[in-house]
Amino acid sequence: MIRTERLILRPWRATDREPFAAMNADPDVMRWFPYALDRAASDALAERISTHLDEHGWGLWALEVADTGEFAGFTGLAVPGFEADFTPAVEIGWRLPRWAWGRGYATEAARAGLAYAFGTLELDEVVSLTTTGNLLSRAVMERLGMTHDPADDFDHPMIERDHPMSRCVLYRLRRTDYEAQYAGG
Predict the structure, then answer these.
(1) Which end of the chain offers a freer environment for a tag, N or C, measured as fewer CB atoms within 10 Å?
(2) CB atoms near residue 1 (< 10 Å)
(3) How would you label 68-82 residue by residue, b for 16+ Cβ within 10 Å and e otherwise?
(4) Phi, psi at residue 113, to the nearest 5°?
(5) Is 70 exceeded by the pLDDT of residue 111?
(6) How does strand 154-155 pair with strand 167-174?
(7) Residue 22 is part of a domain; what is its CATH number?
(8) CB atoms within 10 A of CB 22
(9) Contacting residues for 27 by C-beta, under 8 A, at least 6 apart
């Protein structure tokens, strides 16, 4: 479990499945994904995420608002399940329900994930990716100090090439840049 000022990044609970499914079915939340998830697909994803956390001790943690205990999506680390020029890699990612947008939760939680990646896991680099049009997630990546080189952009190999979500941007944060940015706090 990881605590921030306002959030808890924790293992998944059975009670997370219902709000997770609602979030994954929300067209606004899933706007930058190829498709929304039905309940069965959402539950399967939650199970895969939870199993990874149990086996490795890190991954995509369930996100909880500390004051209320409310499920607020997920944030954390994952290994991309496809091959690309930048893999193997560890990616930082997030998905929050609409009510949690605009509160700084994604940035706050992702900073905690980065601290874990560079501190506990001692990684040399963390990446993040999204479709080109997802400006809100790109803004989070930039607030985290991640950098984007258009030469790293790629067509997602698991999405049909003519699909509007196939073109992705890649952001990177190297350990040395993280340490320089976050030194002293």
Answers:
(1) C
(2) 9
(3) eeebbbbbbbbebee
(4) -65, -40
(5) yes
(6) antiparallel
(7) 3.40.630.30
(8) 14
(9) 36
Tell me the pLDDT tens digit for each residue of 60-95.
999 999 999 999 999 999 999 899 899 999 999 999
Residue whose token pair is 């930039």: 142
Evaluate if residue 184 carries a pLDDT over 70: no
Residue type, 64: E
Helices (H) and strands (E) in the chain, counts: 5, 9
Structure tokens at 58: 């890190």
N-to-C CA span, the chain:
20
Count of domains in the chain?
1
Can you give the residue range of the structural domain that contains 135? Answer: 2-182
**CB under 8 Å to 103, separation ≥6 — which residues?**
none
Give the integer Cα–Cα distance in Å for 101 and 178: 25
